[in-house]
Specification:
The protein is an alpha/beta fold. Helices cover about 30% and strands about 20% of the residues. It has six helices and six strands; from the N terminus they run H-E-H-E-H-H-E-E-E-H-H-E.
């Protein structure tokens, strides 16, 4: 018998080496979500935050994961979809929750559970205001995900508020997009340890670029979490 020339090589490890966690790239995180045939959902990004869905489209395989990606940038158009807030503000937690509920209701209405009994639905949304032209107000935003890890269970929610510290709108948008991917990936693959999930939200992001000052977990997977 011929010997296999390509023997499996083990990693070289030395005494004294430190075990370093391998952090997946943003593309790898998005691709992992895309390649799971049971994860299926909607992106709704209004205001300045329209970068998260772009990562999923660029990573490949998005056709089996993304039901819809939309951006109601115009305020009147946004009001026509999600309703008018009592305080006429758009970058609020109340607005974000309306977006999540509205888009999830549409997803459930339009995708048959009889035809897709194993699909785990999700909706990712954000509403954001980046730095103003005069650079006096650096901006802030709300971001969240409503999702299942089992198609027979109720939905979980992770909602967070961020404050930007960068001085360029484009950089703020890119940072927000990275954090959005981290949130979606973490929601599905790190939900069993919310404290670690919070740390993973900063993967590939310098902590001085963006600050999370509020985060809330709810749903069957987070019943024991003290927000």
């Amino acid at each position: 018998k011929k010997k296999n020339k390509f023997k499996r090589r083990m990693a070289i490890v030395y005494k004294g080496d430190t075990n370093i966690e391998n952090v997946p790239s943003i593309k790898a995180k998005a691709l992992r979500i895309n390649l799971n045939s049971q994860i299926y959902g909607t992106f709704a990004e209004i205001g300045a935050g329209q970068e998260t869905s772009r990562h999923f489209f660029r990573s490949g395989g998005a056709s089996g994961t993304i039901a819809k990606a939309m951006s109601a940038y115009d305020k009147d158009f946004s009001d026509a979809i999600y309703g008018i807030e009592n305080d006429r503000r758009y970058v609020t937690e109340a607005r974000l929750k309306k977006m999540l509920s509205h888009e999830m209701a549409l997803l459930e209405d339009r995708i048959s559970r009889d035809k897709h009994p194993d699909k785990m639905f999700f909706c990712f949304a954000n509403t954001v205001a980046t730095i103003d032209f005069a650079k006096k107000y650096k901006g802030h935003g709300w971001m969240g995900i409503k999702y299942q890890i089992d198609p027979t269970q109720e939905y979980n929610e992770i909602i967070l508020h961020v404050r930007f510290h960068e001085n360029d709108a484009k950089l703020q948008q890119e940072t927000l997009g990275t954090m959005g991917v981290n949130l979606i990936h973490g929601a599905f693959y790190k939900y069993n340890n919310p404290k670690h999930l919070l740390k993973y939200l900063y993967d590939h992001i310098d902590k001085d670029k963006i600050e999370i000052d509020t985060i809330n977990f709810s749903g069957p997977q987070f019943e024991s979490v003290d927000n």
